[in-house]
Amino acid sequence: MIVVGLSSGTSVDGIDVAAAELELTGDTVVFTPLGHLEVPFAPELRTAVLDALPPAPTTLDAVARIDTGLGRAFATAALRGIDDLAGGRADLVASHGQTLFHWVEGDRVHGTLQLGQPAWIAEATGLPVVSDLRARDVAAGGHGAPLASVLDVLLLGDRAARAGGPVAALNLGGIANVTVVGPAGATTAFDTGPANALLDAAVRAATGEHRDTDGRRAARGTVDEHALARLQAEPYYGLRPPKSTGKELFDTGYVDRVLGGRAIALDDLLATLVELTATTVADALRPHGVREVLVSGGGARNPAMVAALERHLAPARLVPISETGLPGDGKEALLFALLGFLTWHGVPSTVPSCTGARAPTIAGRISPGAHPLRLPGPAEPPARLRVGAGAAPPGT
């Protein structure tokens, strides 16, 4: 199958689009990326999403408009993916949507809300759409996160065996999440805390810009040790996995609340927030004795963040996820392509030891395309994933 995956993370930077050819061969998913791209949000839609995020009040009017606006934007992005990445032909679209609220109380998740009405995607492309990928795991008692654990476990099991010890995948989006895979198949996964969420919020509040491009401000700043200690005292870091978090906790006013409104020069604040991410990731991984950490996500393009992580993770080796054959910028969208593919084949795509669910679940719901649904018979769950050599998109 050719599957187009769509994703927008907690940073609300734009829609990540990836296409892949997937095939089940015995106990292996052969996964051949066909390319990835990013479709920026219209400024007014991005502003509407950011303005509706907790703790801001919102209305059902705003929610309905955002759901429709995101659905249309994801539909446009899907068409770009089909035409530009898949040679004009695809079989399925898998859309994560945009998380607006992740309802966490203590160590339990009670609900999760992703907007981006899939009917717009199905209508625009004529293809069936798998969406709402987190809710079933939550209904089974899980956190609905990190969903990347299924890809990481299939991808890294053999690598952990070769390394002779645990390896980890680290994704640095708005929130940082890790999956730890042991050589004997033992796995755990969880959100460690903020990655880009607090950095982007600080830059936006001070300058109106979206991010600290290339980490330049953080690199020339100085860590404020007093502020860092206050931020590291957040109770979330002490919770045992499985656990998940989001902008419901690490919102735009979080730093001001924790620091009591104390003023810090922007460059120094960004340096401090980079150090916060690096230390909390390293502290979370240290008990697992990982040999190497494969990093992806927007934060992996921030040299200041990478340098801090290398320092705190040592002696573990920090390497780009591209070493596995997957592109770092496209990993999240490719993940959702995999989830859609597994759902289409009736295969569970969540890992209970990672999300905390009672049992593995088949993720998402399917919106029919222009033709009646004809699903294949259920397949056996795969044991590994092999990245295929970059095939040209069909029709090229």
UniProtKB/TrEMBL annotation:
Q: So what does this thing catalyse?
A: 1,6-anhydro-N-acetyl-beta-muramate + ATP + H2O = N-acetyl-D-muramate 6-phosphate + ADP + H(+)
Pathway noted in the entry: Cell wall biogenesis; peptidoglycan recycling; Amino-sugar metabolism; 1,6-anhydro-N-acetylmuramate degradation
* A GO term, aspect molecular function: ATP binding
Does the record bear Kinase in its keywords?
A: yes
- Residues bound to ATP are G9, T10, S11, V12, D13, G14, I15, D16
List every stretch annotated Disordered: 375-396
How far does the signal peptide extend, from start to end residue?
none
The alphabetized list of GO BP terms reads: 1,6-anhydro-N-acetyl-beta-muramic acid catabolic process; amino sugar metabolic process; peptidoglycan turnover
Q: What is its EC number?
A: 2.7.1.170
Keywords, alphabetical: ATP-binding, Carbohydrate metabolism, Kinase, Nucleotide-binding, Transferase
> Its function?
Catalyzes the specific phosphorylation of 1,6-anhydro-N-acetylmuramic acid (anhMurNAc) with the simultaneous cleavage of the 1,6-anhydro ring, generating MurNAc-6-P. Is required for the utilization of anhMurNAc either imported from the medium or derived from its own cell wall murein, and thus plays a role in cell wall recycling.
Task: Give the UniProt family note.
Answer: Belongs to the anhydro-N-acetylmuramic acid kinase family.
Name of this chain's protein: Anhydro-N-acetylmuramic acid kinase
